[in-house]
What we know:
Residues 527-548 are annotated as: Disordered. The protein is an alpha+beta fold. The chain has helices at residues 19-31, 123-131, 149-152, 164-180, 207-218, 223-232, 239-248, 260-270, 291-296, 333-337, 400-405, 423-426, 437-456, 481-494, 499-509, 514-522, 533-543, and strands spanning 2-8, 33-34, 40-55, 69-90, 96-113, 136-144, 159-161, 188-199, 285-288, 318-327, 349-361, 373-387, 410-418, 465-471. A hairpin with a 5-residue loop joins β4 and β5 (96-113).
Amino acid sequence: xxxxxxxxxxxxxxxxxxxxxxxxxxxxxxxxxxxxxxxxxxxxxxxxxxxxxxxxxxxxxxxxxxxxxxxxxxxxxxxxxxxxxxxxxxxxxxxxxxxxxxxxxxxxxxxxxxxxxxxxxxxxxxxxxxxxxxxxxxxxxxxxxxxxxxxxxxxxxxxxxxxxxxxxxxxxxxxxxxxxxxxxxxxxxxxxxxxxxxxxxxxxxxxxxxxxxxxxxxxxxxxxxxxxxxxxxxxxxxxxxxxxxxxxxxxxxxxxxxxxxxxxxxxxxxxxxxxxxxxxxxxxxxxxxxxxxxxxxxxxxxxxxxxxxxxxxxxxxxxxxxxxxxxxxxxxxxxxxxxxxxxxxxxxxxxxxxxxxxxxxxxxxxxxxxxxxxxxxxxxxxxxxxxxxxxxxxxxxxxxxxxxxxxxxxxxxxxxxxxxxxxxxxxxxxxxxxxxxxxxxxxxxxxxxxxxxxxxxxxxxxxxxxxxxxxxxxxxxxxxxxxxxxxxxxxxxxxxxxxxxxxxxxxxxxxxxxxxxxxxxxxxxxxxxxxxxxxxxxxxxxxxxxxx
Length: 548
């Protein structure tokens, strides 16, 4: 499945785009494009971490976040009004390569490199490291649109070395910029957001690492000792996957031996007898989607939303305030692919809150779509992305500020309008700031203020956007099933069982067939032939790869 990835205008990964396409985007960012018929339809404020390069300088494993060291990173803050103007770039087969979305606004980018100390993404820490010559920190302010005369006086030097003094000036500028963004002309628009579509590479496909960690839990090995062992042997095992599997079996402390039940469940998992499969409810489950997904979806996609309800302006809407979560630890691929601020890596979490006036529709379903119902609405969506989480850290809205402040994970946020471009709401949004408990409390207060404003709006005055689709999926999935089925295949090949025999066992256990067929094919076992002695030895080598 493909997933859209945002390449912020200031952080374009030039290697991923052709030179002519990159130059076209660069030119449009410089001069803008005329768009007399375009309407500004949504606002967005986000503070993100990109291009993070963290070394593996730790005593025995990456699960202790404070033991790893950041070598370089970029951070980006953007405040923008986005339009309904998009440009889709496709290949010869009609597949979407990139999607350009146009708007006006402001951004601040920091480039942090040559880091010689422990550091995180907070502006104060970054500025201090630069002042002490423990890193090199440069900044760039970009203005997309016409600066009003009242605003020019507050604009600092647009590029240079980042210091606390400069940061204060930048915060003042952005505070004033929010006040004047409504005065900006939209006669020219800029490709503020460039969205690239690429094939997902979920960590659940790392079958060998999942198997290795399950074996370690079954044997009663502590996570700390497990990581020491595979690092000392230079085994090709992924830290992040191993950490997830220990958590999957309920182990929350790296220095504690797995308990009896945890060991038993891991042993049952290896035999295909334990997992966390959920039945799909008859009503299916809701999938959060964003405008990037809707506008970059391929024509042959099975998950196309319904068209906008024809009676949106006249039918009564429901006001909802709801929280949601997405993580590769328990979310299906469509739930991960349907939003920009999600990840197919384990131990990364996107927490969201949606405050909207909505209306559901199941009319005029697109041909071939598996979408049962689409929810349209106007309002706001708040997203918090937490990555690089230290093992054992509990993730919730209540402790996000503490996680950032204690360096237990990287925290990013996005507050965006859904079909709403009200500049008065933009004035309530935060400027670039450190993320800690105090500032997160302020963000929460801002959200409550926005909720009050949203509740007073007449949704008929705004353009509704597709914000959720209901599909035939369970609320939560077990991402280990592919690995579990493959392990069953290798074990049965060691017992010289035919493919049909293994598939019959998998069906009884509720495991998928495809990974089993792939293993038999990989070992060149044709049709329903009985595995040869050489196949048995090859399968045993796979199962015992860590025992050499």
